[in-house]
Amino acid sequence: MVLRTSLDRMQPRPPTVPPLHPRLADPTLPALVGTGAWFAASAGLFAAKIFAGRPLDDLFWTTIAGWVIGLLGYLLFRWQRSAARRGSRSAQSGL
After folding, report:
1. For residue 73, which of 39, 43, 35 has the smallest C-alpha distance?
2. pTM (predicted TM-score)
3. 27 in helix, strand or coil?
4. What is the tens place of the pLDDT at every residue in 34-62?
5. What is the helix (H) or strand (E) element at residue 9, kind and residue range?
6. Residues 76, 31 contacting (CB under 8 angstroms)
7. 44 vs 5, 14, 30, 55, 80, CA distance in Å?
């Protein structure tokens, strides 16, 4: 039999946090929207070069890097998710 003292009852309990809704926990939509925004910005800057003669400066190459890295990150995420669904030992968990 375990005796509980008044100190045991005064210990704060860690708060319980409810899990996120699956739609909010899925990073697919934000990844695609962010990558699409980088692509739209680079397309806009390229159109400004063609129609207005704006030079392709560092801003253009930053947007190119943004959407390429976003696309690579999304493809890596999909690859890891498919590996986790297959049950691969090397896959990340929780995807």
Report:
1. 35
2. 0.70
3. coil
4. 999 999 999 999 999 999 988 989 999 99
5. helix 6-10
6. no
7. 69, 50, 21, 12, 32
